[in-house]
Design brief:
Helices cover 28% and strands 31% of the residues. The protein is α+β, with helices and mostly antiparallel strands and 175 residues long. The chain has a single domain, classed as Immunoglobulin-like, CATH 2.60.40. This is DUF1254 domain-containing protein.
Length: 175
């Protein structure tokens, strides 16, 4: 009887533990990414990564077919401006909060094809700021910290996509 109670206790703890782990793992992964990225590149500035290979881990599960740039942000110091030229081939700007949820995105695909050749100019604000106080594309982050990830196609001649990422910026917004 004692053995059955122990086994039942282990099963119940394992069953409950999987849910706790599933809830905490995204936060833990993002905190580790944020800490390492902030240490390596600082926050509120864009860094263009080297072309990924099988050993690259600056982006979780990187694709060798994509070029990456990232801005680890902290909006406690104010809003950010993200500017990026939009090339003709695949390109996207994705916004992630600290639980790894992708809460906003801009691309040059499908309905947003008209962005090709323009400069995406986004103001990223915190949840307690009002979008009405800013002009243009305004994205409101649900958290004060997170990551902006720019991706562009690296297939074939990637000079235009690389130049677009190199010309992109992430900086504190003008007051």
């Amino acid at each position: 009887m004692k053995l059955l109670q122990w086994l039942l206790g282990i099963v119940v703890c394992a069953w409950a533990g999987q849910y706790v782990l599933a809830l905490l793992l995204p936060y833990l992964a993002m905190e580790a990414l944020y800490f390492l990225g902030d240490k390596r590149q600082g926050h509120n500035q864009l860094v263009v990564a080297a072309v990924p290979d099988e050993n690259s881990r600056h982006v979780v599960r990187p694709s060798p077919d994509l070029l990456y740039a990232s801005c680890i942000y902290n909006l406690k110091e104010g809003a950010l401006t993200i500017e990026a030229p939009v090339p003709a081939r695949y390109w996207s700007m994705q916004f992630y909060q600290m639980n790894t949820d992708n809460y906003a995105g801009i691309t040059n695909q499908r309905a947003e094809r008209d962005r090709v050749g323009s400069i995406a100019n986004v103001t990223l604000i915190s949840a307690d700021q009002s979008p009405e106080n800013y002009e243009g594309d305004v994205i409101q982050s649900p958290t004060s910290r997170g990551v902006v990830l720019l991706r562009a196609s690296a297939m074939g001649d990637r000079s235009q996509q690389q130049a677009a990422l190199d010309a992109s910026i992430c900086r504190p917004a003008d007051p």
